Amino acid sequence: MAYTVPKLTDYSEESLVAAAGEVVKQLNDESKAVTDEASWDAYRVRWTGRKNGITTQLNETWLKPAPGASKPRVGALYADLRSQIQRAVDEAKDRYRNVAILGDHARAKGLYPLDISLPGVRRTIGAEHPVMKTWREIVSVFQKLGYSVAEGPVVETDYYNFEALNFPPNHPARDTQDTLFIAGQQSKPQRERLLLRTHTSPVQIRTMEKMRPPIRIVIPGTVHRNDPPDASHSPMFHQIEGLAVDTNITFGDLKGTLDHAMKALFGSSVKTHFRPSFFPFTEPSAELYVTCFICGGSGKRGTDPCRPCKQTGWIEVLGCGMVDPNVFEFVKDNGYDPKKVSGFAFGMGVDRLALLKYGVDDIQLFFQGDVRFLQQFS
Length: 378
Ligand code: DAH
Prior knowledge:
By secondary structure, the chain is of the alpha+beta class. 37% of the residues lie in helices and 18% in strands. The site of 3,4-dihydroxyphenylalanine has 11 residues, from strand 10 and strand 11.
């Protein structure tokens, strides 16, 4: 039943306020039905129409018959209601027009009722994380050299993380990578047991199983180690692996490629330096050092000692080497006969490079998600 203005019998303040409240409630309820020109027009006529609009009814049924003593009060109430009604009618018009402009989308999103004169909701913009920025920079240096990008699983099997990379079961070389193992795997054969990959190197094997040589790939990803967090360690961090396999790949190719990559990343004045090292999956193996880009290789900052390079003027940036023939043996059937192909591989820690590049002295800052920290690098 549509609302009609009731006759007033009681002119006490209390019942006047209650009756006026009912009018306002009806006014607002009915305005919700206004969605277009036609429904707005019906609303306008019902509330402000000269002949029998509710404003007119209020005048006829409330104000005119009001006893003399109550007239001023009812008059004020009437004037107030009349202007509220007029405002509601005007607003309903604005609203359906705005909604029509913004369309169903706005209504679906609950923006209705909408007042476009209000300031918008400002969403704070995040900042690119320095680790992801460094990640992208490194990947793009190698993409420009013709490398493609591969990724692999973070939960890995013992076979890919260790065995096929020439870490035999129970070999002490496994101890160099404090591993987080998935629980409850004891009933499986060792090579099938799951762990959180400790490096991105397992994706070397996964890629060589899928793609025949020649290949050139970079493999960015997340890795985990059982290291307690401190200023330079995090149980989760990021690596970028590289692998190039073809006929006649030499250590010279490795040196030339990485020397170019370091100059592209850190500036053309950096020098590179290879020192012998050991990794089970490369032979020979090396660690790559670049001249410290903080002190320029002098080991000093003004008169102070340079801390990032421990005053040596050199910073270790990655491990690398020629792919060990024992590794190729695991993928021999896919065209990787160690007598016919050779290759080089390298792996670097993205977080460490980001720390050095941006002069940050605590890796934990990278994992705290504080926008005020992150915005300093954007
Ligand atoms: N996977 C090694 C690590 O996490 C880094 C590494 C060294 C990767 C030598 C390589 C490599 O591909 O050839 O410590």
